Amino acid sequence: MSRNEELKSAQPTIIAANEALTSQLPFDDTQDQEDARRGFMGTAGDNLIKDSAGRAVWDLDAYGFLAQDCPATANPSLWRQSRLCSDHGLFEVTDGIYQIRGFDLSNMTLVEGERGVFVIDPLLTAETAAAGLALYRQHRGERPVTGVLYTHSHADHFGGVRGVLTDQEVSDGVPVLAPQGFLEHAVSENVYAGTAMNRRAAYMFGAALPRGERGQIGAGLGLTLSTGGVGLISPTLDITHTGQTETVDGVRMVFQLTPGTEAPAELNIHFPDHSALCMAENASHNLHNLLTLRGAEVRDPRVWALYLTEAVDLFADSSDVAFASHHWPVWGRERLTRFLFEQRDLYAYLHDQTLRMLNQGMTALEIAEEMRMPPALERAWHTHGYYGSVSHNTKAVYQRYLGWFDGNPAHLWEHPPAEAARRYVEFMGGADEVVRRARQSFADGDFRWTVQVVNHVLFAAPDHEAARALQADALEQLGYGSENGTWRNIFLTGALELRQGSVGTPTATTSPDLMAALTLDQLFDSLAIRVDGPRAWDADIAVRWNIRDHKPVTLHLRNGVLTHTTGTGAAAAEPDVEITLAQADLRALLLGTVAPGDLGQRPGVEITGDAGALGSLLGHLTAPDPDFAIVTP
């Protein structure tokens, strides 16, 4: 049976809820539709963007089904948002500023200079960025790229840089601009929790789901992630403070640093000669994430709101258009000022009201259920939770201030899921009885409860076929009713895995460029988090790296902990083996391109002491699992 054949119809409860939204929300407001199409100049002739091997990495026509009326299996608000995001091509923002939209999750902006074109945020992959640049040149001429700017440290805003720029062009003087701290944050995410984030991102973006009215219809922030090559060219010019001005190829820019907002390193840009304001990803046509569901550090909504106020103070009176690295622009000073203030109030309200309620003793779950947004904000389409949500953002604020523990001693030392599930199911009369009663909950339209209670059965008896089938059906219904694109994807991917098994991790943002950008400290840290601690409790192994043109570094495995110490001071353990080598050889070993047994055969590598110590140390490392279970134990 194919994936499409397994997908079920919407239940009456979901159909009624979705139909009710058509009269509750202002669908007669067509300003966004007008703005999303404004300035359209054309799109690519070939709908498929392919890599060098001929594999399709993006299909411009994959979401053509969104042109039809919203079906019962989709929330009409999300359907509207996805339809707006599906417009693709080259768009004129204002004289001299253009955007490629619909070629990836994000937008690529092109600002024409005196000799060429200045590229802002070159998408996620080289193939989509190159296709976007080719489309621009088709309409605006063969202008060379005279500069690149990354607005922030997320991969969908820098990963396609090799589709628009080469290392030789950088060596020849083409600048690459980025906010201070960009490189550290861009690469560190892939060191510590990258495997888990990528696995969860497969759920969040619905990478394995079929595109269609019963499958993936978008992610709210855009449609989905392209699947080409992710690269990175390191910045050559840092933006270090608000008010810094730079001119590249005659393009004048004034910067506002906004660290700790949507990304740990981010900036907004004002173009005084164009009366245009680039808001990066700090103000877009949705409520953003304060904690992305793939996992990340919690963002600060208080600081986010403050920087939006500052952006209005600095730039609103001299801007006629505000655009971002997702979605479509807002034109007119009055409209863009109102847009920025409403975005500001959105994050400030969530922050302040969550704190008000937590200081009254409410838990994260209670606050999420109780939180209601002001009607004036709810009426504005751009405040809706297509990507972030009021529910999971309030939980993020709670987590930021109070952490995971809600203060109830009953929750301090709970059993892990499988052990708790076994006990729950036993108390409830066994797996078959729980499933029997859950079927009635499903029939009553109580899908949230169905999912919650059947989850216990699956974690107690993961092979219980009736439970798997019922859970998949209930998750599917929750997906059909979700206004949030990532919630829909997560629910439907969970259903898919219960029916067909793991979908794996189709999209990953690690690449040779990102790995090469890691510092030695980050590379050593990446080893430390792979140590099998219990198996290494009794190990005591020290390896000293005498790195040419670098201070010595000693790796010491002791008490199940792998530490590294730079220099030969008191903290550096007496080594069992000393290895003298170039940093390139060390990196090759740590990145896995050279086997430990082959290291001594490389020119210039000298090994003194116990040559087997390195192999013993590395033998205590484990490999991460990119395909770990999520909906079952």
Topology readout:
Elements: H1 3-6, H2 12-24, H3 31-37, E1 40-42, E2 48-50, E3 56-59, H4 76-85, E4 89-94, E5 97-101, E6 108-112, E7 117-120, H5 126-140, E8 145-149, H6 167-171, E9 176-179, H7 182-192, H8 194-204, E10 237-239, E11 245-248, E12 251-257, E13 267-271, E14 276-278, H9 301-315, E15 321-323, E16 330-331, H10 333-358, H11 364-370, H12 375-378, H13 390-402, H14 417-427, H15 431-443, H16 447-460, H17 465-481, H18 485-500, H19 512-516, H20 520-528, E17 540-547, E18 553-558, E19 561-566, E20 577-581, H21 583-590, E21 606-609, H22 613-618
Parallel strand pairs: 7-8, 8-9, 9-10, 14-15, 17-20
Antiparallel strand pairs: 1-4, 2-3, 4-5, 5-6, 6-7, 11-12, 12-13, 13-14, 15-16, 17-18, 18-19, 20-21
Q: What features would you describe in this structure?
A:
By secondary structure, this protein is α+β, with helices and mostly antiparallel strands. It has an eight-stranded mixed beta sheet with strand order 1-4-5-6-7-8-9-10, with helices on one face. The two termini are 25 Å apart. The model has no long low-confidence stretch (mean pLDDT 96).
